[in-house]
Write a structure and sequence with these properties.
This protein is mainly beta. The protein has one domain. Helices cover 0% and strands 54% of the residues. The chain contains no helices and 5 strands. It has a 3-stranded antiparallel β-sheet, with no helix packed on it. Strands 1-2 form a two-stranded antiparallel sheet. Strand 3 and strand 4 form a beta hairpin. The radius of gyration is 12 Å and the shape is globular. The N and C termini lie far apart (34 Å). The structure holds zinc ion (ZN).
Length: 63
């Protein structure tokens, strides 16, 4: 099943709010997408919590 969800996150580099389409098919997956504003690569970590709510953590690629 292909499940995608659009979420709003703050870019860890420039702080702008951006909308990203997250692929929620697999729990615990990690991938990199460029910020739409500053074009720097953001690492996304996608996880479900105990209520089956999607949690997305972002971080700098090189820190
Ligand atoms: Zn940015």
């Amino acid at each position: 099943m292909n499940h995608q969800e659009e979420i709003t996150v703050s870019c860890p580099y420039c702080g702008e709010q951006i909308n990203v389409l997250i692929d929620c098919t697999y729990n615990g997956q990690e991938y990199i997408e460029d910020c739409q504003v500053c074009c720097r690569p953001i690492t996304f970590f996608v996880q479900y919590d105990e209520y089956n709510t999607i949690q997305v953590n972002t971080r700098h690629e090189n820190e």
